[in-house]
Amino acid sequence: KTEGLIGDKYLSIDPGGGGDLLKPNGVITDTQAAVDIEALISKYAFGEVKKDTDKK
Which of 2, 16, 24, 52 is most deeply packed, by most CB within 10 A? Predict the structure, then answer.
């Protein structure tokens, strides 16, 4: 995630609603990507750039 529009990047880990606790040296297998605010603003401001292969 981004802390502000031009800020530092960080990782947020939030506990889920149930299940087993993560043991030492455990592996997190079920993840979810964050919304990239910078990409959304760029897409809104400049439009989506299409590749030459997208032409019909």
Answer: 2
37 CB-near residues (< 8 Å, 6+ apart): 2, 5
Expressed as residue numbers, the domain containing 43 is 1-12+25-48
pTM of the model: 0.34
Query: 4-49, pLDDT tens digit by residue?
Result: 566 677 777 877 777 788 889 999 887 877 777 777 888 888 876 5
SS3 of residue 2 by DSSP: strand
Does a structural domain hold residue 1?
yes
